[in-house]
Amino acid sequence: MRVTSWPEAERAITLLLLVGLALVPLARPAPYLLHVLIAMILYAAVGQAWNLLGGYAGQLSIGHIMYFGVGAYAAGYLWTAFGVSPWVGILIGGALAAFLGLAVSLISLRYGLRLDYYALFTLAVSQILRTIALNTEAVGEAMGIYIPGGSHNPLMMQFETKTPYYFISLGLLAAITFVIYAIHRTKMGAYLAAIRENEAAAEASGVNTVFYRAACTSLSAALTAAAGAVFAVYTTFIDPDLVLGIGPNFEFLLVAIVGGRGTLFGPILGAVLLRSISETSRVALGAAPAGFHLMVYGAALIAVVLFVPQGLAGVVRAVWANIGRRGVRDNPQVT
Amino acid sequence: MSLLAVEHLTKRFGGLVALSNVTITVNQGEIVGLIGPNGAGKTTLFAAISGFLRPDMGSVRFKEHDITGLHPHRICQLGMARTFQLVQPFVGLSVLENVTIGAFNRTGSTLAARSRASEILEMVGLSQRQHDTASALTPAERKRLEVARALATAPDLLLLDEVMSGLTPAETAQVMDLVRQIRDRGITVMTIEHVMQAVMKLADRVVVLHHGEKIAEGTPATIVQDPAVIEAYLGQGDSRA
After folding, report:
1. How confident is the model at residue B232 (pLDDT cuts 50, 70, 90)?
2. Which of B101, B109, B110 lies closest to A205 in CB terms?
3. Under DSSP, is residue B76 helix (H, G, I), strand (E, B) or coil?
4. Which of A80, A62, A85, A123 lies closest to A252 in space, CA to CA?
5. What pLDDT shows up at residue A326?
6. In the structure, what pLDDT confidence band is assigned to residue A285 with cuts at 50, 70 and 90?
């Protein structure tokens, strides 16, 4: 057998996953299943966007839902208040989130907020935004924004079936994944890794750590906001808890962490696994006392974190390395 | 022609004066040794020159730029690289990736950076280790990796902070050889060293710091006979030597 390098294997697995997801609609899944899958893909997209900043650049942006919320509110508000197409809303939401990301990274750098302090700062900002949304009449306060849907108007991202939303979400996930893949191979990718590994050494090696951290944060924020905008239009309803709350915030992070941060397909795997556990426990235990399925979900999470701390992608890599070694042993001439 | 001009540099940490009115000039093509007892302020001086510490007073000029208070990355881009006494590899990355990051200082192309990194690894003798992660290296190899990463940034001035400490005599000889090779490539070297025989053989000129002050400067031969230097190292109420 041909023994490939891990980056090649990583790329192949990622492509396989994305192509596999693209083929799912051919099986004509029931609307409910398609709905679950769209949610799963949007989770993967947010996890992947976070992965750029939290995985590749090592910045613990644990309040990352703030960017998702900005995208969701921008698209929802612009449309309901001014009739702006969500396609434009994605761009405006992305730009706003990029600006917010820039502010968050510059403020944290200005006041020396690193590591856990940076993490808490991002969480605090996300909850400040949630409180602002809760108290702003223009965005419906606690009622949120109801986005009328169900008509057919591609220019306004309106479709009568779920399948187009499935492909929009998948396209977004593929685009975010490609952005990470492309960056990883460039100078910026090397510099982000340097910042993650050792900031002082990065500075000493000529890396403008302030610039690259800010650029990475803005980009990750904009990509996250795009997912937020698609989410808003697809679900037709957003409120502060849904798109800025602590609960969904950590579900997003878990997708990337359980899947394996700093790897190309980790967040995709993570979303597949976590959404599957969450949905099956909900369906299977829905009749049990309220909240029981969440306890099962929580237990499954603890098990994953305990037994595969490096994430699912780490397991895949270990298995792959094992197969590679066996391949070399069976065919000693191949290296 | 002077490449680096440090003038009246002073750095205090609270009540402790780490550097007091230090003036040093480094000329193009020299190897300058910086010595002094523990706590003399050698590493602090490097940090203040390379932008990691902002001096309280005084100035640093490098190639006609006033670099006092600039960010370290800016100083590196201007052509000054440093190593760390406690080596700071990018532990999770491969040896080649470590050095490639340095090489990106002069190019935007991944291919060019990687090939430059390979050349440098060849020069420091780490080629066989290029695909291992930095965490797998021995302490001696880590020191060489530190030098390689700094060299990859294509500096005109290289600040080496104790790259020979903790090495066996054979390894020390190799590193001395490497430092000479670096100088032969036209790179000026300033090196902090505790291994005295090494500095004396290697340096064209030696600067001695003691309690944050420059107490002597000259050729290795004159330095070893300087009464102030002998006193700093051997006696008179200073047991830290």
Report:
1. confident
2. B101
3. helix
4. A62
5. 67
6. confident
End-to-end, the C-alpha distance of chain B in Å comes to 34
Contact B18, B12 (CB under 8 A): yes
Per-residue DSSP letter, A12: H
Cβ of A207 within 8 Å of Cβ of B101? The answer is yes
Of A197, A207, A209, the CB nearest to B91: A197
Check pLDDT > 70 for residue A185.
yes
Asked if residue A116 has pLDDT above 70, the reply is yes
Of A196, A197, A204, the CB nearest to B76: A204
Taken as a whole, chain A contains a residue count of 335
Q: Which chain A residues are within 8 Å of B50, Cβ to Cβ?
A: 204
- Amino acid at site B26: V
Which of A154-158, A303-307, B88-92, B225-229 is least confident? A303-307
Pick the closest to residue A270 from A288, A285, A257, A289 (CA basis): A257
Check CB contact of A186 with chain B, cutoff 8 Å. yes
Average pLDDT, chain B: 94
Contact A201 B89 (CB under 8 A): yes
What's the CA gap between B178 and B169, in Å, rounded? Answer: 14
Q: Where are the alpha helices (DSSP H) in B79-138?
A: 95-103, 110-124
Contact A198 B100 (CB under 8 A): no
Which of A28-42 are b and which e, b meaning 16 or more Cβ less than 10 Å from the residue's Cβ?
ebeeeebbbbbbbbb
Query: What residues of chain A lie within 8 A of the CB of B142, using their CB?
Result: none
Distances in Å between the alpha carbon of B185 and those of A159, B28, B121, B182, B188? 66, 12, 15, 5, 9
* Residue range A89-105, pLDDT digits in tens: 999 999 999 999 999 99
Spatial contact of B26 and B4, defined as CB atoms under 8 Å apart: yes
pLDDT digits (tens, 9 = 90+) for B33-42: 999 998 899 9
Strand order in the sheet with B157-161: B80-82, B157-161, B188-192, B31-35, B205-210, B213-218
**CB contact, 8 Å: A205 with chain B?**
yes
Instruction: Please give the DSSP secondary-structure letter assigned to residue A264.
Output: S
ipTM summary value: 0.93
Rounded to whole angstroms, the Cα distance separating A91 from B200 reads: 64
The interface residues of chain A toward chain B in range 248-287, judged by CB-CB distance below 8 A, are none
Q: For residues A11 and A8, what is the distance between their CA atoms, to the nearest angstrom?
A: 5
